Amino acid sequence: MAGPASASASCIFCQIASKSTTTTLLHSDEKVLAFQDISPAAVRHYLVIPVEHIPSVKHLQRRTEDYSLVSHMLEVGKTLLSRDAPQSMQYRFGFHQPPLNSVNHLHLHCLALPYTPRWKSIKFLSLGSLGFLEAEKLLEKLRPLPPVISKV
């Protein structure tokens, strides 16, 4: 993964992570931050980002650290939406994939449906390798393989 030294000064999410903006944080810990999307597409629309600069889902690998990070991001998102939009009948959690990601800093979209307005749902269609990647599908791809036990 990329470290803080590779974080771009022009990356708005790095600026939020370094707390150099006035963005209101809904959650903050040593690994992730959460805040409202500036252009919400649903009744509640939050973003959960890693503190560390990771450009996109394409930069994640099948290893314990990446799996753990995405799992933590998802848990934070679920906790926030269950707290702030308990009346919603459906939630969606996922990532846009390059070249369709709007900011080159990994971010989980956490949506409490319905979409508002309805046409914004188009941005969150699952279209294979280009569309919206559901968080659970990403976790399946990142799940570390069990260790191989050799018989001697």
TrEMBL record:
Keywords: Hydrolase, Nucleotide-binding. InterPro entries: Histidine_triad_HIT, HIT-like, HIT-like_sf. The active site is at H109 (tele-amp-histidine intermediate). Coiled coil: none annotated. GO terms for molecular function: adenylylsulfatase activity; nucleotide binding. The keyword Hydrolase applies. Residues 12-124 form the HIT domain. The keyword Cell membrane does not apply. A motif (Histidine triad motif) lies at residues 105-109. PANTHER family: ADENOSINE 5'-MONOPHOSPHORAMIDASE HINT3, APRATAXIN-RELATED. This is HIT domain-containing protein. It comes from Carpinus fangiana. The lineage of its organism: Eukaryota, Viridiplantae, Streptophyta, Embryophyta, Tracheophyta.
